[in-house]
Amino acid sequence: MPRRKANDRAGPVKTRSREGCSECRASRVRCDTKKPVCTRCQERGLVCTTKLVLKWESEFVTRGQAFGRAGVWRKSGKQPTTPSFTSSSALSPDDQVWRPISWVEPWGFINSFVKTLELPYEIDVTDDGHNLVAVPAMAPRAASTMRMIGPTAPPPLFPHLSEVNQGHLLEYYIRQVCPRMTASTNVPSPFASMIVPFCSAASPTVLQAIQALGACAWSRVDPNYGAVGLRLKSQAIRGLQNSLFSAGALTYSSYSEIMVAMMLLCLYELVDNCDQRWTIHLKGAKELISSRRRQATFLGPQQDEVTSFAEQFFAFQDIMGRTACAKPALLGTDSWTHNKHKVDAWMGCSPELVSILADITDLSRTRRRLSSNSDRAALSLKTANLRQQLEEAVQDVDEGDGNLRTLAELKRLAAILYLHCALYNASPATPLVSHYVRRILRLISDMIGGGQLVGLAWPVFVAAVELDPLSDELWKDSDGREVHGRPVVLRALAAMSESSVLSVARTRAVIVQVWQARDNVLKPLSSNRLLDAADWNDWESFVVPFCTAMSLL
After folding, report:
1. What is the span of the domain harbouring residue 417?
2. Which of 2, 192, 273, 325 could cross-link with 178 by S-S, CB 3.0 to 4.6 Å?
3. Pick from 334, 367, 402: which residue ends a domain?
4. What is the pLDDT of residues 241-263, one digit of tens each?
């Protein structure tokens, strides 16, 4: 019997239900869509669920199937329609238009997770800094510093020390660690020229601290030395504790040994994970220096070069870290008694510049406490004076030391940028900030290209956290392509992580957190919730909350 046409059928036409449950749709039967369980599922004891299934036209075309109702039988009798998707192979060469696909770098995106918004001040720092970013090819000088000491190594510089237990770690410290902690190639590193001769006459604790630091640095390229460094660190800490709790007054020689050992153990933490454990040694140094100054008449007014260097190390660490976190000062700027305009190779700038940075941080801390117009006028006058000092600062560098000269100028520019953000309420959108960020990152890019990677942590940090997320185009390269700020920063951090002895993992993690805060947060952050948001400047809102126990050596 022939099938009746739709016009001859009696009763309502049955149509598919778009709200049917998954079980009925899978069995290709009509669902009555009763809620919460349809009749069929209730009778059969099935789980009645409704799921949303996304279908993509390209997948159906690839399998040669029609997408939805495209190409199916129609009541009007018209020919089936062809799918809307047409492959490029069906087009003639004249009709094909090829569009260039922009290259996506590995650092093109920074992922934000729920934890980023729920716990915005927690910084996730991995153990291995150079695994955080894609590492480009190293410059010749950087690559040469990574070579291990093998059987063909040159004769030891200090044979009487290298022959002791773990003497090869001392040699690694001298040949590999010390050169990567000084920006100048013309000036010997004080970590070698001062500290190594001192340890030959000091207690075994100093030598153990040196060997622990060498093993920790070596473990970055050979993880087997991690356990060795940890064991030597424990021995050095026990020796340091015995010196601190030994009976009797603090003598000059014991003070020097304790300060040097604490400096080396502090460096161990900076090389290892760069977490807040390094601040334990900083706070201990503060107490020790205060105690020594109270006993100045007993210890005598004279101080040797090694002890002065250890005090300067902790004072420099305190000042540079405070620029990020805005904490109260632990150590003052009176640790430098020599020429204030002469650039120190291990600091990468002059003592005068370091003192100006300390003054900027102190003024920024007191800015919101001013209540009278006269106090605000005095603050404006001091700020203008500091700005003039920075713009006219003279940093003396020996002839022929171009790398050190460039680094000193780079830190001066970063200091000017920091002053405007901390005291003039400048932000990334301020034209002057954009100008200095562009100059700083251009110099950093040139230095990275030349293999100069020491001392860049603070300039990279200051420029990175003040990048404008809406306009970070810096310049055009030789091919006319725009160079953007965030890739430049991440490339610099990658190169520093690969060749620098100090860990940059925390520096990079904080920079990424600041970028995420600028991209995602609708209102400014602040570490002090009791303050009115109108009183926060950009630095206090987006930088300070993340920078507790920050080291920017």
Report:
1. 113-147+338-553
2. 192
3. 334
4. 888 887 455 676 788 899 999 99
Q: How far is CA 262 from the centre of its chain?
A: 25
- What 3-state class would DSSP assign to 475? strand
Angle between helices 305-325 and 457-465 (to 10 degrees): 10
Say which amino acid occupies 22. Answer: S
For 256-307, what is each residue's pLDDT tens digit?
899 999 999 999 999 987 778 898 999 988 988 888 877 765 555 556 889 8
Task: Provide the 10 A C-beta neighbour count for residue 274.
Answer: 23
The DSSP output letter for 527 is S
CATH of the domain at 43: 4.10.240.10
Structure tokens at 426: 């400048």
Residue located via tokens 């460094």? 229
Burial of residue 67 (CB within 10 Å: 0-12, 13-18, 19+) is middle
Same domain, 401 and 480: yes
How does residue 134 score in pLDDT terms, banded at 50, 70 and 90?
very low
Q: Is the dihedral of CA 501, 502, 506, 507 positive or negative?
A: negative
C-beta of residue 365 within 8 angstroms of C-beta of residue 527: no
pLDDT greater than 80 at residue 230: yes
Please give the C-alpha separations between residue 296 and each of 160, 301, 313, 333, in angstroms, as whole numbers: 34, 6, 20, 18
Among 172, 148, 152, CA closest to 162? 172
For 351, phi and psi rounded to 5 degrees? Answer: -60, -30
Give the model's pLDDT for residue 49. 84
Q: Are 139 and 451 in contact (CB under 8 A)?
A: yes
316 and 175 housed in the same domain: yes
Average pLDDT over residues 329-358: 83
419 and 516 housed in the same domain: yes
Q: Which two tokens stand for residue 120?
A: 């915005």
CA–CA separation, 17 and 39 (whole Å) = 14
Q: At 505, which amino acid appears?
A: A
Q: Which residues lie across from 475 on neighbouring strands?
A: 483
100 occurs within a structural domain: no
List of residues 6+ apart from 241 with CB closer than 8 A = none
Q: Name the token pair of 98.
A: 């090829």
